[in-house]
């Protein structure tokens, strides 16, 4: 059996930064509870490990006493305001790439643009980003939302449009949405497109596509609640029918995998390398 592990597999820069800074904070404040607004990363195993060291996940910033960690996905403007009002210190581990999108959205909104954000509706990053887009903005979840968006743009009377996208959205779907939107907006509109899909996401999706065409089976490793992991699964499944999405080695049907000669492994941005290694070792040693 040949096992090929994707080179772009595992923690991205933003997640690595969030996890290591949280570990440092827990070490510095040993014995104390450190609050984190929402799961630090979309990976159960990573979060459980940090919880054992004193991390407490909260759903509302007001549950924190003195300070709270903001995870890599970022949060909405209201969260910063509430923390400020309550005197809660923020340890802001929002990925710099996400912060850049917040700043861009705010700047363009101030300059009179209508902002279109393409993203997954309930994803924390999208919830955070849309709050920086101002009143004249709208979220496109998929192609079905294009006509509603066009109506909103027309009603707003704004002729300058900025299109942004969630960092982990599918590049192919984004391109399709932008193409259709541009076709439907006539020449009187000035459309500014910023492809804010993170390069780490783009490279990972491209490698997944390439790898899934070369192997007999694909294993995608990552949290089932992770948006970027689910997209990797979708991409791989198109090219390789024998694609499995697993959180840990325990979810893997190793016996079935033994039927394949070449197996590709790719992991989402919140998946630690040890999860990938465990799977590789299980395949090699069974
Ligand atoms: S996927 Fe990209 S934007 Fe999102 S946290 Fe990782 S490095 Fe940052």
CATH architecture of the largest domain: 3-Layer(aba) Sandwich
Tell me roughly what share of residues is in helical segments.
40-55%
Structural class: alpha/beta
List the helices and strands in order: EHEHEEHEHEHEHEHEHEHEHEH
3D shape: flat
Largest sheet: 4 strands, parallel
Number of strands: 12
Strand content: 15-25%
Tally of structural domains: 3
Using the CA coordinates, give the radius of gyration: 21 Å
Low-confidence stretches: none
CATH topology title of the largest domain? Cobalt-precorrin-4 Transmethylase, domain 1
Q: Mean pLDDT across all residues, rounded?
A: 94
Strand order of the largest sheet: 1-12-10-11
What is the level 1 CATH name of the largest domain?
A: Alpha Beta
Give the N-terminus to C-terminus distance in angstroms: 11 Å
Which compounds are bound in this model?
Answer: iron/sulfur cluster
Separate helix tally: 11
CATH homologous superfamily title of the largest domain: 4-hydroxy-3-methylbut-2-enyl diphosphate reductase, catalytic domain
Question: What do you see in this structure?
Answer:
- The protein has 286 residues and is α/β, with parallel strands linked by helices.
- The protein folds into 3 domains: 2-10 and 199-285, Cobalt-precorrin-4 Transmethylase, domain 1, CATH 3.40.1010.20; 13-93, Rossmann fold, CATH 3.40.50; 97-193, Cobalt-precorrin-4 Transmethylase, domain 1 (3-Layer(aba) Sandwich).
- The protein has helices spanning 13-28, 44-52, 77-86, 96-110, 124-130, 146-156, 171-184, 199-214, 227-239, 254-257, 273-285; strands at residues 2-5, 34-37, 55-58, 67-70, 89-92, 114-118, 137-140, 160-165, 190-193, 217-221, 243-246, 262-267.
- The N and C termini lie close together (11 Å).
- The relative contact order is 0.16.
- Bound molecules: iron/sulfur cluster (SF4).
- Iron/sulfur cluster binds at residues 12-15, 72, 95, 97-98, 167-168, 198, 200-201, 269.
- Iron/sulfur cluster is lined by residues 12-15, 72, 95, 97-98, 167-168, 198, 200-201, 269.
């Amino acid at each position: 059996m040949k096992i090929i592990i994707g080179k772009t597999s595992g923690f991205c820069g933003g997640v690595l930064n969030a996890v290591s800074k949280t570990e440092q904070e827990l070490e510095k404040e040993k014995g104390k509870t450190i609050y984190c607004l929402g799961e630090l990363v979309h990976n159960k195993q990573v979060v459980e490990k940090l919880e054992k060291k004193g991390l407490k996940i909260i759903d509302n910033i007001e549950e924190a006493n003195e300070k709270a960690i903001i995870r890599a996905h970022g949060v909405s403007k209201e969260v910063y305001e509430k923390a400020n009002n309550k005197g809660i210190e923020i340890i802001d581990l929002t990925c710099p790439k996400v912060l850049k999108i917040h700043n861009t959205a705010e700047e363009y909104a101030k300059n009179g643009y209508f902002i279109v954000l393409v993203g997954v509706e309930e994803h924390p990053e999208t919830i955070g980003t849309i709050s920086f887009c101002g009143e004249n903005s709208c979220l496109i979840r998929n192609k079905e939302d294009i006509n509603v968006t066009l109506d909103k743009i027309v009603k707003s009377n704004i002729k300058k449009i900025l299109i942004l996208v969630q960092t982990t959205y599918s590049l192919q779907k984004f391109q399709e949405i932008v193409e259709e939107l541009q076709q439907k907006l006539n020449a009187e509109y000035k459309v500014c497109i910023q492809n804010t899909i993170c390069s780490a996401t783009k490279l990972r999706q491209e490698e997944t596509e390439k790898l899934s065409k070369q192997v007999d089976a694909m294993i995608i490793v990552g949290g089932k609640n992770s948006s970027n992991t689910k997209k990797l699964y979708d991409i791989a499944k198109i090219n390789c029918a024998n694609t499995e999405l697993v959180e840990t080695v325990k979810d893997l049907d190793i016996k079935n995998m033994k039927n394949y000669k070449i197996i590709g492994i790719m992991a989402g941005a919140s998946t630690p390398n040890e999860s990938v290694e465990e799977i590789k070792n299980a395949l090699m040693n069974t």
